[in-house]
């Protein structure tokens, strides 16, 4: 432990990481640098500075990473229509590689020889943080206190904080009954009453969305403009990636969109029940598939769908910085060059309904061919007979063989 001179801590200012900060000082006898990221979690991050200063920290990083998060992580992921196990939009998973990247950058800037995080030994985040860190700096030392100390309950953390004079807000009665994580893409809820997968979450748990039952009785219409697979405008107003997500979270939440209650398979082996609110992501996924339906070649679209589960697993399991994810991303981004146009959506009581899509430059939809009316010879229906017979050949041969037995 004496070999560690300086460590960069991913620091939220909450109970866990404040205890970790003091524990690192006491156990490792090292200098601590704190890093707090604003990923659009909707809570003030600046108070973390004063708290870190009160604990003797001299080097404090508080970074607004909202645009980088949306532009370089969320948007590339949504170009692939990425969902894990058919439902989860990877809101927590996609934030971890950015945090790992910034931890390593700060370690390099400050001359630190270690990083530290507050992820527990039961979850996926420890894997995501550390795989990312090692991919970006192979010689980095990682300190994961939850795998080392004996402070294994909230009460033991509170006792440690009291003993060492660490200020903790709402020590006993006012804390949330859930473990939560929030950023521009989602807010997640785990633990406590949700640990019984039969128990319905209380309505008061949800923070970003109204229930579909209480959503407006009148539908909200929005139009999203796409350029190379990314949303670049809402209702014809150009907006940045982070602003896209902020606005869609608000509009979607007001219409009861984005709630999810799932049991997922963690990479470390256990099943975990979690609830999520992902209004913007739910809208973006539906709209992106709509514009792709108009602009992507059939076989390209089908190949993307075949590869997506693999891509999703790479992100969920922490392999964002792996060569295989980067290879897939290159292919995905190439497929998006002609994904340009506009999608019109109707938002109504938890539903995202596509009601229109258009692309003046890249649409592969040919009305003169697809029409049920007179097509003026654009498509010769007689050609279908040979097409069907050729494709039926192997089926007919097999049927004859069966009949001969």
Can you put this structure into words, describing what you see?
This protein has 405 residues and is an alpha/beta fold. It has two domains: 6-83 and 94-175, HUPs (Rossmann fold, 3-Layer(aba) Sandwich), CATH 3.40.50.620; 181-296 and 338-358, Argininosuccinate synthetase, chain A, domain 2, CATH 3.90.1260.10. Helix content is 40%, strand content 19%. It has twelve helices and 14 strands. Strand 2, helix 2 (47-54) and strand 3 (60-64) form a beta-alpha-beta unit. Helix 9 (298-317) runs antiparallel to helix 10. It is elongated, with a radius of gyration of 25 Å. The mean pLDDT is 94.
Any key phrases for this structure?
405 residues; alpha/beta; Rossmann fold; Argininosuccinate synthetase, chain A, domain 2; five-stranded parallel sheet; 12 helices; elongated
Shape: elongated
Number of helices: 12
Please indicate the percent range of residues in DSSP E strands (runs of 2 or more).
Answer: 15-25%
CATH superfamily of the largest domain: HUPs
The separation of the N and C termini measures: 76 Å
Largest sheet: 5 strands, parallel
Q: Taking Cα atoms only, what radius of gyration do you get, to the nearest Å?
A: 25 Å
What CATH first level of the largest domain would be assigned? Answer: Alpha Beta
Order of helices and strands: EHEHEHHEHEHEEEEEHEEHHHEEHH
Mean pLDDT over all positions:
94
Percent of residues in helices: 25-40%
The name of the CATH topology of the largest domain is Rossmann fold
Low-confidence stretches: none
Give a count of the beta strands, DSSP E runs of length 2 or more: 14
Based on helices, strands and strand pairing, what is the structural class?
alpha/beta
Total number of distinct structural domains: 2
């Amino acid at each position: 432990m004496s070999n560690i001179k300086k460590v960069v801590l991913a620091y939220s200012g909450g109970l866990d990481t404040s205890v970790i900060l003091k524990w690192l000082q006491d156990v490792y006898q090292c200098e601590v640098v704190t890093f707090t990221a604003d990923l659009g979690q909707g809570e003030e991050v600046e108070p973390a500075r004063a708290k870190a200063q009160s604990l003797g920290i001299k080097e404090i990083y508080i970074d607004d990473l909202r645009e980088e998060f949306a532009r370089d992580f969320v948007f590339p992921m949504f170009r692939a229509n990425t969902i894990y196990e058919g439902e989860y939009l990877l809101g927590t998973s996609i934030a971890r590689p950015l945090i790992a990247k910034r931890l390593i950058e700060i370690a390099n800037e400050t001359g630190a020889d270690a990083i530290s995080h507050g992820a527990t030994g039961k979850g996926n985040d420890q894997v995501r943080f550390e795989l990312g860190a090692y991919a970006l700096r192979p010689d980095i030392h990682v300190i994961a206190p939850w795998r080392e100390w004996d402070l294994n309950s909230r009460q033991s953390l509170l006792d440690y904080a009291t003993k060492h004079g660490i200020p903790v807000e709402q020590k006993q009665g006012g804390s949330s009954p859930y473990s939560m994580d929030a950023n521009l893409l989602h807010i997640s809820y785990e633990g406590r009453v949700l640990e019984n997968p039969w128990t319905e979450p209380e309505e008061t748990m949800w923070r970003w969305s109204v229930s579909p039952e209480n959503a407006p009785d009148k539908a909200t219409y929005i139009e999203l403009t796409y350029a190379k697979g990314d949303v670049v405008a809402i209702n014809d107003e150009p907006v940045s990636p982070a602003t896209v997500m902020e606005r869609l979270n608000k509009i979607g939440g007001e219409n009861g969109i984005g709630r999810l209650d799932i049991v997922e398979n963690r990479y470390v082996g256990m099943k975990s029940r979690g609830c999520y609110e992902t209004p913007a992501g739910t809208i973006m996924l539906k709209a992106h598939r709509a514009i792709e339906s108009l602009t992507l070649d059939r076989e390209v679209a089908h190949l993307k769908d075949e590869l997506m589960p693999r891509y999703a697993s790479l992100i969920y399991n922490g392999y964002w910085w792996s060569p295989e994810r980067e290879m897939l991303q290159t292919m995905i981004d190439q497929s998006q060059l002609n994904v340009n146009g506009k999608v019109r959506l109707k938002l109504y009581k938890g539903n995202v309904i596509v009601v229109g899509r258009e692309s003046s430059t890249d649409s592969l939809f040919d009305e003169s061919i697809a029409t049920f009316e007179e097509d003026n010879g654009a498509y010769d229906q007689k050609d279908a007979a040979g097409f069907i017979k050729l494709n039926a050949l192997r089926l007919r041969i097999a049927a004859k063989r069966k009949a001969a037995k």
